[in-house]
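Anyone? Bumping this.
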Amino acid sequence: MKYAYFPGCCDHTSAKEYDISTRAVCKNLGIELIDIPDWSCCGSTPGHSTSHLLGVALSARNLALVEEMGLDCTASCAACYQRLALANMEMKNDMKLCEKINCITGKPYHGGVKVKSIVEVVAELGPEQITARVLKPLENLKMAVYYGCLMVRPKEIQVDDPENPQIIDKLMRTVGGEVVDWSYKTECCGGGLAISNEDIVLRLTNKILKEAVDAGVNCIVTACPLCHFNLDMRQKKINKIFGTNYHLPVFYFTQLIGLATGLKPGELSLETHFVDTREVIKLIA
Amino acid sequence: MIRVGVFVCWCGSNIGGIVDVPRVAKEAARFPYVAHSMDYKYTCSEPGQKMIIEAIKKYKLNRVVIASCSPRLHEPTFRKTIARAGLNPYLLEMVNIREQCSWVHAKEPDQATAKAIDLVRMAVAKAIHLKPLYEGSIPVTKKALVIGGGIAGIQAALDIADAGYRVILVEREPTIGGKMVMLDKTFPTLDCSACISTPKMVAVAQHPNIELLTYAEVTGVTGFIGNFSVTVRQKARYVDHSKCTGCGTCWGKCPQKVPSEFDLNMGTRKAIYIPFPQAVPNKPCIDAASCRRITEQKCGVCAKVCPVGAINYEDRDKILQLEVGAIVIATGYDLFDWTTAYGEYGYGKFPDVITGLQFERMVNASGPTGGKIVRPSDGKEPKNVVFIKCVGSRDEAKGKAYCSRVCCLYTAKHAHQVLEKIPGSQAFVFYMDVRAPGKAYEEFYQRTVDEGARYIRGRVSKICRQGDKLLVKGADTLLGTQVEIEADLVVLATAMIPSRNSRQLAQVVGFSTDKDGFFQEAHPKLRPVEAGTAGIFLAGSCQGPKDIPDTVAQGGAAAVKVCALFAKQEIATDPMIAEVNEALCTGCLNCREVCPYKAIKRKTIPDKARGQAAERTVARVNSSLCQGCGCCASSCRSGAINLNGFTDEQIMSAVKASLQHQRLLTNRQ
Amino acid sequence: MPAINLTSNVKDNLDFIMHVSKESGQPVQHCYQCGKCTAGCPVAFAMDYPPNRIIRMVQLGLKEHVLKSQAIWLCAYCSTCTSRCPRNVNLARVMDCLRGMARREGIQLEGRAKKIALFYDCFLDTVKRNGKLYELGMMLNYNLKTGHFFKDAGTGLAMFTKGKIKLIPTKNENYKDLAQIFERIEEMEEKC
Ligand SMILES: Cc1cc2nc3c(=O)[nH]c(=O)nc-3n(C[C@H](O)[C@H](O)[C@H](O)COP(=O)(O)OP(=O)(O)OC[C@H]3O[C@@H](n4cnc5c(N)ncnc54)[C@H](O)[C@@H]3O)c2cc1C
Ligand code: SF4
Ligand code: SF4
């Protein structure tokens, strides 16, 4: 399996754990990720919120680059995945728009690329292939998988059912973890409102943390840098404002697959979390 | 000598307000073979018809073209009119210049007029080639088949039987009664559903003119109006009903408990069972899949205890062959399976989210809880009950676009029952509209509101688990805010959909379904209980969602139609059907594949062409089955099939007339 | 709100209604105001008009009210509304389209909306310059423009200690392409 890999702008900053663990796990599982030369920002929420054309154009530029590589595309970041996949769909379905955008980007895209979330790419390996590589089953981890919005909505690009997705749950079970059934899998954390209206995000994130704790888990699993940032980095502030006492490590699903398949915490950037991960990781052994 | 008369109608201002009617009549006068052309305000009125008759006589007309409304509306009228003038009724050609001209082109009157003239030109060209046609006749078997023993089928069967005709009622389940016997009380009067439906069930069983076949299904239908031949599979019951007295010893002793379908899996029954105590027939059958004697050769208790030796484990399905003259379809409805569509309501994983029909079983004194409203999860009495309407109805994204018509009223009934039975309880109803157009329905709804039910205008977006309660997250669009309710029980008003396998049944019997799978009536207003196929009638919720009053009314209406048919010794057949020119037919039988009514059969004829006694295959049209749709004619490669009244010659001359005129116009330009 | 004269309002704003339908690709008249969007919207509590009312206002051509609303900016594009709408209205797309219109019409924003728009500008500004998001640059610029110089300074420091902040922007090779994309779009949108 070989994919053009779109790491997203936060790959070396706020979401570096995701990029590092994605690369490490894919390598370990035999998924070849090729960097897209000259890739640029997908536009994210600010892009499409400002102008529909801008949103599509910023993503389409990258699709054109991938098309030149002759590969299909995968993105780790859920926001990038959604933007690329939606732009891809619109470019394929709307000839007029496609022409217009190609004119804007100066890089013609002809609709020859498939966009997949890294979650799909890993899941496609199938349980046998993954189980075969498991060295340290995540036996004592009880987790709430939190999917957020961006990879399950809207339905044109959904990776799984928006009301009760299972794709990461299944992966986590495959590597020996215990996942709980909870109602907040795809509730929104407020995502991009964090900087401009932090109070809203704190309120939404608090609810998600509370539900997870009530479900009796010892960690949260996610596949979205925005969700991760809000749940991990803001946990301390939430504790302060709402008088709560959460101490719930938030992992990327790739980090946990990495641990289970024998990668070292250092290779998965587990030390750069805001909520200390060590206690929970100890449970595994 | 062909003499065509053209009559152009104003239809008041319906046509005349847009189309220049006098001009159409004037133009038509110039068309070949037209001997007379005129316009009139209301051609279908008595003076209008008289005028046609007089014109036919005065101008010696032998073909008539009437440009007016749709032939669906007045073709029969005008056929009779020209017959009164002594013409063969099929020497008539109608042009629809209302629906096809004035209505659709209301904004472009000139073009509407031009189109009307074109259409009349084509009709005249076709009329020239019209041939007189003659109706045939066939005898009628005066016995009816009713499929489905819900209240619709029961009513139809009783009415036909009371009129003195014989009826066979086929029901798929071990008992008749349908959904109505599952209900507790019925809106808007709140009378007990069992009390008003079980006497009718008994009447069916005891009626000398009704033969009841329960636990049976129709597997094949051939034939045509007045003469259907029906195959029925009687499923093995493993109990000989001619011996069984219905004493109940067997199901008392049977050790195998399984979920009861009648109680929607909220209660249990035995492997040998009657679905409920008042079932008709009141004799058991064995559910083979759950019987340990049948599946594992063990147990066999029922045979040991049966005092009359009615149990027969070796029983097999039987095939029955019936001859009937008319079929009433009354297969009713099922409920939309919300658990596969509504993830936001938990996909069925919360035990305390139930359907309205489950609620009916629960409040029913003979139901699984003895009439107590409880939470399935812990058996406790709920204090806060939330009702959500339109689950699967009016939801084209997840379910059906249509309104299920009964949920508004039964939800009002359920809310009333909660408030009545549980002191201190609260009932919340999420609704989009309250549709209560029946007699005394609005008052019924208002009464529930007066009793304290809170109606919240908005849909529910999500149901979450919260401790042992359910958090219902909705909106009140009148307030413009989100609302939340901590509910103990949530009841969903799920959509009514056609009963399972109804599409297959439509195929077997040979009639059509609508886009939602309900059975298609011949005309939504004027022929609501007839299917598109002659001799097949529809009753009740198999034709579309309906409450009991409407269902019963349709059952009666279908019965009247059947009786009207049976009152005749013979019936006339429509001559506008397909006809095979055997000389041209190559016997490929393509036509047989495309015929939706199975009207085409293979026929062998002596082949004289080779001089010796050879045979060849040709197609034969069964004149009683053919509905004149023309599929065969258009699929015939050798042009051997013609549809009477729409022959190739007739159609082609209409097309030619139009094309020649177009060419004339372009040449002039 | 004083009584709205619908006779003239709908007629005068027919263009607006059609435009929203066309640009968003959503037949806004399909909405039957069930409120399921509002019921599930995570940010409805902070909005001045709930989502179903935004659509209602579009249906009736209340252009000014809609474009000045906070709600269209507060929408987080989570698409919860879209995925549950029984009438298949992609409300998130409508919200998106209204934001774009508000911006093109030069609506003066206030409160939360103003901050959100500003954040978007600062974000895109770094993309325009570098081809990729430059988080530190964006934050500094945002703080400068809101006048809260040390907002999130704690966060910044924490990020820094975890090695999650880069002091200088990362650029892609042909980062200048991006500025061109922005310019071409601006030109195009001015024209229409
Ligand atoms: C929760 C709920 C509450 C209701 N409350 C009320 C109320 O208070 N008042 C009111 O007026 N209405 C009420 N209704 C509506 C009422 O149930 C229907 O109007 C009525 O039952 C329709 O009767 P039917 O005979 O058309 O269909 P059904 O009752 O569905 O009967 C159809 C019968 O046909 C049989 N059948 C199906 N397919 C075949 C086949 N292929 N071969 C042989 N047999 C077949 C079925 O087994 C069934 O016995 C309620 C509905 C619901 C869901
Ligand atoms: S959910 Fe859809 S139909 Fe309902 S109010 Fe919102 S946009 Fe309108
Ligand atoms: S997309 Fe916007 S309006 Fe819709 S639910 Fe999410 S935040 Fe609310």
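Late reply, but here is one note on the structure posted above: The mean pLDDT of chain B is 95.
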